[in-house]
Design a protein that fits this description.
There is one protein chain. By secondary structure, the chain is an alpha+beta fold. It has one domain. 20% of the residues lie in helices and 53% in strands. The chain is elongated.
């Protein structure tokens, strides 16, 4: 009996080889696409960091003059701006050692940038400013810009803090006495600054303009009896922070609370 050797035909082997090569090619294309997407999303996120730092600087510049505006331009593909309303509450009080008085209490908003789904950060990183609730004598900018990881990577602009300036002792004219001589009221003066971000219109996609406009500036005055120090306390849901200002104990203190409302509008360009 003659035994015949069985083998795979050339056609079948060719089909198998082509199939294997096709699978390998598809896998390589998929990996290459993911690498390209990862790089693109990371570049976009890095650009968003720089642009948001510039935007925070613009917000502070326009906050000093009602009606002033400034803008940045940002290209979005995988991510985009996001405005979080009522992110938390902030309470600002002053304590003269005898009485504690609330000068401001409200919720606050924050502006974010959501990264693409392939981007991740290890944790919080401050890019600008500080996460402190109180900034003294312009040591840091009021706007804290940072990255965070929470269901994705984010860049955040947060203004939930106050700036304190001890301006010194001033003589304020009260008028004239019976002898037509000027009468002065001598006071310590401390100025407190706060910036509130509010949402405007959000439209468009792709290439966007983010416009910051100072809608309003309000000034409130508080005359407080002091005997050398005045303590400012700022609270939110994460905790509290305090700072005591050294004052001339011979005079009362005038606290000037300045709040700037800055509206954020976003539209396509």
């Amino acid at each position: 009996m003659i035994k015949r050797r069985l083998g795979i035909s050339e056609i079948v082997s060719t089909i198998i080889l082509v199939g294997v090569l096709l699978i390998i090619s598809i896998a390589i294309m998929f990996i290459a696409h993911n690498i390209f997407a990862y790089q693109s999303q990371n570049v976009e996120f890095e650009q968003a960091k720089d642009i948001y730092m510039n935007l925070a600087e613009i917000i502070e510049e326009v906050s000093g003059k009602q009606g002033a505006s400034g803008y940045v331009r940002i290209n979005t593909v995988s991510g985009g701006p996001y405005f979080e309303v009522n992110a938390d509450n902030i309470i600002i009080t002053v304590d003269n050692g005898t009485v504690t008085q609330t000068i401001y209490s409200s919720s606050y908003n924050i502006l974010k940038y959501r990264a693409g789904s392939l981007v991740g950060v290890s944790g919080r990183e401050d890019l600008r400013g500080t996460d402190s609730l109180i900034v003294v004598n312009n040591e840091y900018p009021l706007g804290n810009v940072y990255t965070m990881q929470s269901n994705g990577a984010w860049v955040v602009i947060n203004y939930s803090r106050i700036g304190i300036l001890n301006l010194g002792v001033f003589n304020f004219t009260k008028g004239l006495n019976e002898s037509n001589e000027p009468v002065f009221d001598t006071l310590n003066v401390v100025e407190v600054h706060y910036i509130e971000l509010v949402p405007g219109s959000f439209t468009g996609s792709g290439s966007l303009y983010i416009v910051a406009t100072c809608e309003n500036i309000t000034v409130e005055y508080y005359r407080i009896n002091t005997t050398g120090t005045l303590t400012f306390i700022v609270k939110n849901s994460m905790g509290s922070e305090s700072y005591s200002v050294a004052l001339d104990e011979n005079y009362d203190t005038l606290v000037i609370f300045v709040k700037s409302i800055v509206k954020i509008n976003i539209f396509g360009g």
